[in-house]
Amino acid sequence: LFVTEEAIVDVVGRAYAGTLIKPIWFMRIDKEAIREWSFADTRDRFKRLDNAITLAMPGSSVAAGFVQGVLSDIESRSVFSRVPLLLLLAVMVVTVLFFLSMMVSYLVQSRDGDAALLRSRGVGTLQILRLYALEGLGMTALAVVLAPFLAIGMVALAGKLPSFSGVTGGGFLPVEIGPAPFLMAAGAGLLCLVIFVVPGVLGARGGLLTQKLRSSRPPTLPFFHRYYLDVALLVI
User: Fold this and answer.
1) Taking each helix axis from N to C terminus, what angle separates 208-216 and 112-120, rounded to the nearest 10 degrees?
2) Cα angle for residues 172, 173, 174 (degrees, 5° grid)
3) What are the residue ranges of helices labelled H in the chain?
4) Which residues lie below 8 Å from residue 136, measured CB to CB, with a gap of 6+?
5) Terminal C-alpha separation, the chain
6) Cβ-proximal residues to 197 (8 Å cutoff; 6+ apart), any chain
7) pLDDT, tens digit, 9 for 90 and up, residues 161-200
8) pTM of the model
9) Cβ contact 104:199 at 8 Å
10) How far does CA 77 lie from the centroid of its chain?
11) Could you give the angle at the alpha carbon of 189 between the alpha carbons of 184 and 192, nearest 5°?
């Protein structure tokens, strides 16, 4: 029998005075609100509810084991589902860094002649730094501005993929425009600018005589670069 609190207290309490009972309350949970909570937030809220009920009514307990079990199961599955994504991101980051190192090495070699001519005409290191910085800004500024919007658009379009059709119903993935993509784009642009400018400035410290010596007696290329193994590794 499902009865109200008033029926237990007023009717049964007067009819059977001194009787010990074990009442059970069923509380409705707003499923839509729970979907907005994180795993940690949900677990913390249930723990606070258990503590509040126990303090208000000593000897009572909150039977939320089913919900806690579902949360633990989903959380463990999400951890294992993140492992392939982390491995993929690690491979992508290593590939990008390797590609940048290749481009920087070839860039420094290609700029030796120009830097030597500039040095022979009295151009100082500060002027070369300013020249390379302006050139680098021209390439990275546009990418920094466009990258966040491209990323947000691609994430939204991913909802059209069959993998997400069960979640989105064929619509776009919901995205929120916040400061994080713009800050990450600015940090990546600054890093690329430093990678572009610093090696070129360091390689321009030698003069025209040094460049002529390198041309007449070029340094031996490493085995890795001589047979283009770096390019093959990048393709793989």
Assistant:
1) 140
2) 110
3) 5-6, 13-15, 31-35, 39-56, 65-110, 112-120, 125-157, 165-168, 179-203, 208-216, 223-226, 229-235
4) 192, 193, 196, 197
5) 69
6) 129, 132, 133, 136
7) 887 777 777 788 888 888 999 999 999 999 888 888 887 7
8) 0.54
9) yes
10) 19
11) 125
Sign of the alpha-carbon dihedral angle for 171, 174, 179, 183: negative
Residue 9 contacts by C-beta under 8 Å, 6 or more apart in sequence?
A: none
Burial (0-12, 13-18, 19+ Cβ within 10 Å), 108 = middle
Q: In the block, which residue shows the tokens 């000897």?
A: 59
pLDDT tens track for 65-115: 777 777 777 777 777 778 888 888 898 888 888 888 777 777 777 777 777
Q: What percent of the chain has pLDDT over 70?
A: 89
**Cα–Cα distance, 67 to 54 (Å, whole number):** 19
128: closest CA among 136, 120, 137, 119? 119
Residue with tokens 């599955």: 77
**Residue 10: helix, strand or coil by DSSP?**
helix
CA distance 157 to 208: 53
Integer-rounded Cα radius of gyration of the chain: 33
Tell how far CA 226 is from the center of its chain: 37
> What is d(CA 111, CA 58) in angstroms, rounded to the nearest whole number?
79
